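Dear V.,

Thank you for sending over the compound details. I've combined the ligand you provided, molybdenum atom, with the protein sequence from our construct and run the structure prediction for the complex. I'm sharing the raw inputs here so there's no ambiguity about protonation or stereochemistry in the SMILES, which I know was a concern on your side last time.
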Amino acid sequence: MAQPWSSPARVAEPDEQISFEELALAARNHALPLEALRYDVTPIGLHYLLTHYDIPELDPAEFTVTIAGRVTRPVRLDLPALRARPRVTTRVTMECAGNGRALLNPRPVSQPWLTGAVGTAEWTGTPLAPVLREAGLADDAVEVVFAGADHGVERGVTQDYQRSLPVAEALRDEVLLAYEMNGVPLPPQHGAPLRLVVPGWYGMAHVKWLRQITVRDTPFDGYQNTSAYRLRQHPDEPGEPVTRMLPRALLQPPGYPDFMSRVRGLAAGPCRLTGRAWAGDAEVTGVEVSIDGGEHWTPAALEPSDAPAWVWRRWWYDWQATPGHYRLQARATDAAGRTQPVDQSWNRGGFTNNLVQRVEVMVTDATSPPAAAAAAPAPNPTG
Ligand SMILES: Nc1nc2c(c(=O)[nH]1)N[C@H]1C(S)=C(S)[C@@H](COP(=O)(O)O)O[C@H]1N2
Ligand SMILES: [Mo]
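Below is the predicted structure of the protein with molybdenum atom bound, written out as structure tokens.
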């Protein structure tokens, strides 16, 4: 073979387009269609999806998860035992740390997300903390490693997908061993029969197909913690770990799309712009909208909520649309004063890029046909 079968991390050349390999990843791992921002809870098939390797084949009847390592009483639990434990349902907005990657310049070569790597689900399961406490955490426990049943090779490193959390994070009340999503057993692609849910953290921490929990007295040095999911400017630096979601607002694109460009068509007149906003740590306190490409920002209305930062909230802004070409933008600010940047903050992995979303809209006079129809394009052969 001319190419090594598992290549090192790479940043695209300045004029390099999306590759066949990136297309292959994008076709497996899909985004939330932005019109699905209309749902408080994302229907399962519309929730974004990200799987590093293959979806593993697991028999729920045979399935067990083990809790071992630095504990006094190692435990093995099957699904009936998990279901017999206290049952909690919690709503969580989850976003991939790579969301926004393909908008970066230069582009880190990996799953080429635009802005839709997010979804909100209702996860049902049992809290992790009591399970860990019953197993008896050793005094010297520092991290807990969560291993999935999926296996692959990444940048030359053969592995099962594994991620660790510091003990204090693993013991948070909100962290769940989840066996249901939106009221039904987890579907295969979202981690059946069991996954971890770590509200507030980017997606990589929510380990799917969870089959082993190992308590450690030293920091975990696995690939997904020390090589991947680090904020680096240079390949050789250790980099800061990726943890919680930064604030982000998304706009549900108004009007109707052009098939290829996705530019929106909209008839002039009153238009309520609406979308969702969330964060991973301190709650969203405001959303601002710009209709003039970022010259002016106006506060949007934000739905009142007692929910934590990681449950997305609806926002809206009443726009009097007059004919013309617009670039709509929305940006969120959280209670810690963090606002989404209008310029990219770049890192080699393309992580945590919460650069503001931009939506192009052609507003046409309500009485004349839309510009696109007037141009009478050839029928689309692909349907
Ligand atoms: N076992 C396992 N867990 C995993 C992954 C994976 O590839 N294998 N991908 C992670 C990443 S990067 C993300 S963004 C989320 C995606 O969860 P979803 O596919 O249910 O939306 O799962 C995380 N958990
Ligand atoms: Mo991710």
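A first observation: The two ends are 37 Å apart (CA to CA).

Warm regards,
I. M.
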